[in-house]
Amino acid sequence: MKQDTDKTLLRRTSILLQLQAAYPAALPLETVMRGLKLSSVPHEEITENTLNIDIAYLEEKGYLSSERSDICAAHARVKIRAKGLDHLETSGF
């Protein structure tokens, strides 16, 4: 159970760090997925479903915001919010 929690925390922190690096721009979900695959997150832990769950969780916490394209709702972009930046800073990032 602890190991699963650690993996989830690693994935979510990696998402926030990518968004921090791109700030103030928003990133497409495809870019975030590619970034996770290049990070130290185990590849078997990265699926479209886990990404969507992590994005929804981080959005509910107020750490990021997501927006759908007016042209195509399938194309979502995510952006770190001030609360997410503050969270990373207080966590030592």
Question: What does this entry look like structurally?
Answer:
The chain has a 3-stranded antiparallel beta sheet. 57% of the residues lie in helices and 13% in strands. A hairpin with a 7-residue loop joins strand 2 and strand 3. The mean pLDDT is 90. With 93 residues, it is of the alpha+beta class.
Overall shape: globular
Strand tally is 3
Please give the order of strands in the largest beta sheet.
1-3-2
Content of β-strand? 5-15%
Mean pLDDT: 90
N→C terminal distance: 25 Å
Helix count equals 4
How would you characterize the largest beta sheet? 3 strands, antiparallel
Radius of gyration: 13 Å
Residue windows where pLDDT falls under 50 for at least 5 positions: none
- Binned, the helix content reads 55-70%
- Listing every helix as H and every strand as E from the N terminus to the C terminus, the arrangement reads HEHHEEH
Quickly give the structural class.
alpha+beta
